[in-house]
């Protein structure tokens, strides 16, 4: 029905006929096993007996150092690969009665040691916890291309927002199962979802046509400006008999850190009325339990009627850098 490259007033994306168009799926993390398999038995046998007398002193991650001998560092890091999930073990590091190490999340799922089959103990290996606090580890998305190495204190935060962590398709229709690196999200959207229209410029009109059509509907477009891509969407949701709400959102095809650098405005103007909304875009990475409790512009049916003309709602979307907008 619509194609890319149309003039602004004609641009609208209408995905009708889907009575179940619904909230964006929560982008749960994708479990990526670490490459390479350690030799668990060898790893366990290398360990010193657990120390019972020291606490966590000396484990200040801010003092993490990179041992001068890279080979020793790599060897120590390899000793900290969990034999079950192949992730790196971070404190608390548990061990069996014979000294085989296991990460704490795998420990909770097992009653016997995966290496020697003796009963698992609740003994921590404080010596290896101290070793872990001094090492730097590869990001868990290293097999997807991330080259960053970090102390365990910084690792989790980075991995949450790592640009190499696979992204789910952000199209507001949870039927698409695509996932891939951030750099491929835009191409996937425009090549796979033919309803998605693209538009260049930081000040555009996002025209949603036939907003009064019955059923749950969504309108989607990609706005490209400042060298980045932003996903605009208007969702119409039925909350019950005669009760409809519209959610207008701007999400960035970027990491949460990237998204924090921008501010967007949505304004509606019609029939001598003006409505303005300003917020920061969300990253497509962020998980939304549902549209109904997210930080978006929410319009009820009568507001939409006031601002729509001949069944079309024109949203003027302006995206600026937060610094230029006087925000931090
Ligand atoms: Zn594990
Ligand atoms: Zn064991
Ligand atoms: Zn990373
Ligand atoms: Zn998709």
TrEMBL record:
GO terms, molecular function: ubiquitin conjugating enzyme binding; ubiquitin protein ligase activity; zinc ion binding
Region: Disordered, residue numbers: 1-65
Gene Ontology cellular-component annotations: cytoplasm
Biological pathway: Protein modification; protein ubiquitination
Domain RING-type per the UniProt entry, residue ranges: 82-117
Catalytic activity: S-ubiquitinyl-[E2 ubiquitin-conjugating enzyme]-L-cysteine + [acceptor protein]-L-lysine = [E2 ubiquitin-conjugating enzyme]-L-cysteine + N(6)-ubiquitinyl-[acceptor protein]-L-lysine
Domain spans labelled SIAH-type: 134-194
InterPro entries: 7-in-absentia-prot_TRAF-dom (IPR018121), SINA-like_animal (IPR004162), Sina-like_RING (IPR049548), TRAF-like (IPR008974), Znf_RING (IPR001841), Znf_RING/FYVE/PHD (IPR013083), Znf_SIAH (IPR013010)
A Gene Ontology biological process term: proteasome-mediated ubiquitin-dependent protein catabolic process
Enzyme Commission identifier(s): 2.3.2.27
EC category: transferase
Keyword tags: Metal-binding, Transferase, Ubl conjugation pathway, Zinc, Zinc-finger
Protein role: E3 ubiquitin-protein ligase that mediates ubiquitination and subsequent proteasomal degradation of target proteins. E3 ubiquitin ligases accept ubiquitin from an E2 ubiquitin-conjugating enzyme in the form of a thioester and then directly transfers the ubiquitin to targeted substrates.
Family: Belongs to the SINA (Seven in absentia) family.
Domain text: The RING-type zinc finger domain is essential for ubiquitin ligase activity. The SBD domain (substrate-binding domain) mediates the interaction with substrate proteins. It is related to the TRAF family.
The protein, known as: E3 ubiquitin-protein ligase
Organism encoding this protein: Drosophila ananassae (Fruit fly)
Underlying gene: Dana\GF23937
